[in-house]
Amino acid sequence: MASSAAPEHVARIVIENCAIATVDPDDTEYASGHVVVAGNRIESVGAGRAPTDLENVARRVDGTGHLATPGLVNTHHHFYQWITRGLATDHKLFDWLVALYPTWARIDEPMVRAAAQGSLAMMARGGVTTAMDHHYVHPRGAGDLSGAIIGAARDMGVRFTLARGSMDRGESDGGLPPDFAVETLDGALAATEATVDAHHDPSFDAMTRIAVAPCSPFSVSTELLREAAELARRKGVRLHTHGSETAEEETFCQQLFGMGPTDYFASTGWLGDDVWMAHCVHMNDSDIAAFARTGTGVAHCPSSNARLAAGIARVPDMLAAGVPVGLGVDGTASNESGELHTELRNALLVNRLGPQRERALNARQALRLGTHGGARALGRADQIGSLEPGKLADLVLWKMDTLAHASIADPVTALVLGAAAPVTLSLVDGRPVVEDGRLVTADEDAIARATRDEARRLARIAAGA
Predict the structure, then answer these.
(1) How far apart are CA 223 and CA 391, in angstroms?
(2) Distance, CA of 220 to CA of 187 (rounded, Å)
């Protein structure tokens, strides 16, 4: 049994009689075991019942019929899109962006807060304990959008990274977004630095971190990319952007810069172990080798890639090369389900349509992508992503004995390939966020009403523009 001593008098939560998939370096699993949480840390994980002489046990949970795993880690999202779901459903990426940017350019602070609450609620009730949001649309006069998003995550009780995004290439400069929805170079850099200064917490058990995140090669200037990388490294925070999502992006970069996306990113300082990029669908052998050599991470978003007909990312090849790969929901205007369990299943299924076929991924690799892989992409693998003593107490107890899963002997296979499993308990930093399938930190019905109302208000504003 692995254990880590906790300070005296710290309250404990004991979970026992459950199957456990630790996702530790050895992929240790227990058919029936226990997890002891002391404060906000995992104290011990092992086979059989927990020790009977534990002190200050505030709660005991009988996990019979359940599987315990690390909490899911989402590595790419756009929360604001929650209030534009179900639109442009038959478009590829560039056409989809052109169709939706005029609406997105009219978001404001109340809309963004409601959308963040909806996005976070859907993920949290489905087992996500660490979320991130890449927010890059900052219309003039829209209010404190970063503060609204961070406040929503704090209220929900999930661990969170805000990738403070930016765009400075509007329609008049050959970009896709309307000019009034982009920032100036200096304005974007100043606002990003202010967000880092106000909100970034570098501590081990931080609940809020900030990354620097210009949107994409086709919506930002080379100067913004280069200076954003310098800003992030001066501040000691991570870098995030979209990369190699579509074949059109390859053509765009070749025409405008005379090189492909990966070489362009390298020329602007955007490869490194402090960088992770979303999608990375159209990567050749040289691109994958460059990511592996530099430790650049990938947020794999299989549902969104399929929804926008972007293609199949070479995830098995990336993993074989040693590239850090996590999973992402992506914005809910291109993944309307808005939850990460779908990505466990689709990562496995979609990649088996590629050249590796049935050898592409298995259930345990998919679970690792959604937990430890995501923690690596966010730069937090020492703190979250596996059930190990000393790590933060972010874990999920999945109910596996219902009609949907009871006849599947292997609980990890049941979780990944089966229907979405009910969450009996989700802990973040040792505190319950979900109990018996319902959020305990937020009113789901109130959030549903608020997001519906804000979606309708945005639609009216966009229609009258």
Answers:
(1) 39
(2) 13
How high is the pLDDT of residue 174? 82
Q: Cα separations (Å) of 110 from 43, 114, 115, 178, 458?
A: 40, 6, 9, 21, 10
Sign (positive/negative) of CA torsion 440, 335, 400, 41?
negative
Encoded amino acid at 16, one letter: E
**For residues 422, 427, 428 and 432, what is the CA-based torsion angle, rounded to 10 degrees?**
100
Q: What whole-number distance in Å separates Cα of residue 158 and Cα of residue 151?
A: 11
Condensed to tens digits (0 to 9), the pLDDT of residues 329-355 reads 999 999 999 999 999 999 999 999 999
Tokens 């669908």: give the residue: 281
Would you say 206 and 232 are in contact if contact means Cβ atoms under 8 Å apart? no
Element containing residue 348 per DSSP (H, E): helix 341-351
Measured CA angle at 52 (ends 49, 54), to 5 deg: 115
Q: Which of 289, 218, 213 is nearest to 248 (CA)?
A: 218
Whether 89 shows a pLDDT value over 70: the answer reads yes
Helix (H) or strand (E) holding 111: helix 109-125
- From the CB of residue 138, how many other CB atoms can be counted at a distance below 10 Å? 23
Question: Which stretches of 365-410 are assigned E, i.e. beta strand?
Answer: 395-399
277 bridge partner residues = 241, 298
* Contact assessment for residue 58 and residue 10, using Cβ atoms and an 8 Å cutoff: no
Q: What share of the chain is helix, strand, coil (3-state, %, to 5)?
A: 40, 20, 40
Angstrom distance (rounded) from CA 72 to CA 126: 9
The number of residues making up the chain comes to: 465
What is residue 282's DSSP assignment?
S
Phi, psi of 178 (to 5 degrees): -60, 150
Q: Are strands 41-47 and 2-3 parallel, antiparallel or unpaired?
A: antiparallel
424 vs 448: CA distance, rounded Å: 21
CB 324 within 8 A of CB 297: yes
Q: What residues contact 360, with CB distance under 8 A and at least 6 apart?
A: 315, 316, 348, 351, 352, 354
User: Does an H or E element contain 161, and which?
Assistant: strand 159-166
Binned at pLDDT 50, 70 and 90, residue 4 comes out as low
Side-chain half-sphere exposure of 306, counting CA atoms within 13 A? 14
What does the alpha-carbon distance between residue 94 and residue 169 come to, in Å, rounded to a whole number? Answer: 15
Tokens of 2: 């692995």
Torsion 23-334-243-183 (CA) sign: negative
Residues paired with residue 59 on neighbouring β-strands, in sequence order:
13
Average pLDDT over residues 182-211: 98
